[in-house]
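Narrative of accomplishments. A recurring question from our advisory board has been how the design workflow behaves on a single, concrete structure rather than in aggregate. To address it, we present the structure tokens for one chain from the evaluation set, followed by the sequence designed for it. No filtering or post-editing was applied between the two.
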């Protein structure tokens, strides 16, 4: 008899989970453990750096090896009398939030591997030595580290497929649909964590360019747009190069610094967005000009 389609997908989930646990074992029990041992004894790399590279991989490995894989295996052995996996995946889903931390840390981890490979030859040699082993299948540490980042989207795809192939009256339909919804939420949570981290990183870079003025540094601000602008001087019909940063709550009118030590700009004026008006001017001599008027003052500006 032909195996039902949904069983094939459930078996694929089990097989990929087994391969995934092997990969996690390699990351946690081989790379992390051996690099940590080296950090403690050889002092070639600080222990803190090794911990930062591998983030919470140990928790992820233990969860999959000791809970999810055995549960899945048991379920597939009983498939003929209990053809369902939806409930097992529902148990798994909340724990996948652990991935948020690992995924957020991934870029930083890769940067640390590169930086410390240049700084510490013994660190690089140990990684190269592990990478030569058969278990690594000629792939780099960075390549293996990418696997947890890709695992949640993989669950989502397999489960979508599984739900699609389920017969309408399947006893697993309700559970499987609920499980898919939960996995989808976790994937969204993970993506939102990355987006928020990127937003804060970009914001920090902007604050550094502005010289970290206390009253401007606020993590809740959102940068909307930035760019060069010409300031019109009505007195002598001349223009001078300025720079604008538009946030959700304020407009910063800045002057580029000639000597760029530290900050790149000096904030000349800060205008509240609340109550601000922008009006286009029809000036034949100076095209693309507009007025920005706020509580603080009015500026006459020209865009490129």
């Amino acid at each position: 008899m032909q195996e039902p389609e949904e069983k094939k997908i459930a078996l694929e989930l089990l097989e990929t989970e087994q391969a995934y646990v092997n990969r996690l074992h390699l990351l946690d029990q081989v790379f992390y453990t051996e690099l940590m041992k080296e950090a403690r004894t050889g002092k070639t790399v600080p222990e803190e750096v090794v911990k930062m590279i591998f983030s919470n991989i140990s928790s992820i490995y233990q969860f999959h090896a000791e809970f999810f894989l055995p549960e899945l295996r048991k379920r597939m052995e009983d498939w003929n009398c209990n053809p369902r996996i939806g409930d097992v995946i529902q148990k798994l889903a909340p724990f996948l939030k652990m991935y948020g931390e690992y995924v957020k840390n991934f870029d930083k981890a890769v940067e640390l591997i590169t930086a410390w490979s240049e700084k510490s030859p013994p660190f690089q040699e140990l990684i190269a030595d592990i990478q030569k082993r058969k278990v690594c299948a000629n792939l780099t540490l960075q390549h293996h580290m990418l696997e947890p980042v890709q695992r949640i989207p993989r669950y989502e795809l397999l489960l979508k497929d599984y739900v699609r192939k389920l017969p309408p009256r399947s006893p697993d339909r309700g559970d499987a649909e609920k499980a898919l919804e939960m996995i989808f939420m976790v994937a969204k949570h993970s993506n939102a964590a990355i987006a928020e981290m990127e937003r804060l990183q970009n914001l920090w870079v902007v604050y550094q360019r502005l010289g970290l003025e206390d009253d401007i540094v606020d993590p809740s601000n959102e940068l909307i747009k930035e760019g060069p602008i010409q300031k019109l001087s009505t007195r002598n019909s001349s223009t001078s190069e300025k720079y604008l940063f538009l946030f959700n709550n304020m407009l910063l009118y800045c002057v580029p610094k000639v000597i760029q030590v530290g900050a790149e700009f000096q904030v000349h004026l800060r205008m509240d967005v609340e109550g601000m008006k922008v009006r286009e001017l029809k000036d034949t001599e100076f095209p693309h000009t507009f007025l920005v008027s706020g509580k603080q003052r009015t500026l006459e500006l020209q865009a490129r």
